[in-house]
Amino acid sequence: xxxxxxxxxxxxxxxxxxxxxxxxxxxxxxxxxxxxxxxxxxxxxxxxxxxxxxxxxxxxxxxxxxxxxxxxxxxxxxxxxxxxxxxxxxxxxxxxxxxxxxxxxxxxxxxxxxxxxxxxxxxxxxxxxxxxxxxxxxxxxxxxxxxxxxx
Length: 151
Description:
Elements: H1 4-22, E1 45-51, E2 55-62, H2 67-79, H3 81-88, E3 93-99, E4 105-114, H4 124-145
């Protein structure tokens, strides 16, 4: 097994490789975008890609500290669920409230790829192939609906 430093290096190498791979692909608006650190423009609302020792996840994370605001944002996504699923061409898991770590509650809409590890370079093509179409689809969806979230 890898020590903590080696794991950190592999994670950094993966995200750098993914960023380089995605760099030539413009956003749905035709502009250059940082796919690895996607900015929604809405405080405490993010699109996150995570990969670890057994899974890779892509998620819409609603991390607003105020329960009512977090619930409101989650409900906005629920109202747009058909449009989101159409953009993604698949159904994702919906969790309105869960522990986001450090005692912070979050809402999360996500999908997971199992049986892969960021620490195995042979799995990187699978992980990249999992993330790429989904983050591109999220971007296209977001550019159509983001006005509904700008309150």
